[in-house]
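TEACHING EXERCISE
Course module: macromolecular assemblies
Task: Read the component lines below, then compare them to the predicted structure of the full complex.
Student: A.B.
Group: 4
Components provided:
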Amino acid sequence: MSDTLAGRSLRAVWHPCTQMKHHEAQHPIAITRAQGPWLEAEDGQRYLDGISSWWVNLFGHGHRRLKEALIEQMEQLDHVMLAGFTHAPVVQLSERLAALTGLGHAFYGSDGASATEIALKMSAHFWRNAGRPQKCRFIGLAGGYHGETVGALAVTDIPLFREAYAPLVRLGSVVPSPDARAAQPGEDAISVARRAAAALAAWLAEHHASTAAFILEPVVQCAAGMAMHDPEYLRLARALCDRYEVHMVADEIAVGFGRTGTMFAHQQAGIRPDFLCLSKGITGGTLPLSAVLTTDAVYAAFYDDAVTRGFLHSHSYTGNPLGCRAALATLDLFDELDALAANVALARALDEAFLPLKQHPSVRHARRTGMIWAWDLADAPSDFAQRYQREALARGLLLRPIGSTLYAMPPYVLQPDEVRHLGEAAFGALCASLDGAAA
Ligand SMILES: *Cc1c(COP(=O)(O)O)cnc(C)c1O
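Instructor-supplied answer key:
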């Protein structure tokens, strides 16, 4: 075992979000190839990528169009610093993202967490430039996830990720989530949204003078366990942010690029945020890239003769041409495949394939938004997530529950037999992982 890729990995690679000692019992799986929705392992096993490789892949692995675009870009220009220089992919991508969102100024980072950092810094700096430096605090939703760098942890309400670093973090405030599962008898998702918005209103009434921005994941709070809410919350929150002069930061790092059915999730509410954070699917799952889009008003507050009123933030790979080119090719695929419309039909087929799962007696709150499915497990064993993942892998499927919430977020390119495989393996793994536990 020690000469395999997995064995060498355990000696040399520190894996993310992992207690490395747990790998004594189960080694990481060495993937040697990926094509379409399939991951292929060193030992020849194939796994259907039911979570899009941590929510980044959109049109399958190794897509010919993305490959061609990247090879062409590589022959032209691999990288150049974006301070003092510019290039076609970053210009074109910024123009296209502006046309899609109405947010005309794009600032680039490399990962999702760096986009969060950029949005928070820009917001606070905006208020400082506006002569209101006391507006420098942030609020987020209960269960919100915005990345794990020290700044992003300030608004990430997931104790498991934050606790060890509490002394380093300048904690933001948390308001109730509009999670539709919180509905009381007689309430629907809209009532929950209104109740949560009332709590936000009360909080802002008291603290707006010291608050720079409200950050949230529109429509689906993914890391919280696919908590879904009615877009009504976004309309109410937008009105409150306007009334109290607080920026709205839409973190669409996970839910952007069609995951919720619309190109961007906030568009379901007919609102526009002040900042929009994008990453993950932006390159179709090929390269790390993130972007923060913002308004003319924010941009204008930094536009000045004084250097210190500018946004003096940078990453070495800001606006990397290869990443931008992959993003452009990804946007082309949305048009060419009419992907949002195609996903409506694909989601219907998947709904049917997931029917046995939905009807399993232990499943609560079966739910779907766009191309995201989730099911909560009642009385799940404490090791349900690991147990389930193991059973799914044994059936040629990658699904990785969050606590006792099972979810699927597959790529947009499943063939009918792959839809069937996903439904059957997901159900089989559920029965097996609960069976073993009951005894
Ligand atoms: C994944 C994620 C992030 C962090 O992105 P990284 O690239 O992992 O740093 C931030 N916000 C949301 C909503 C995410 O899902």
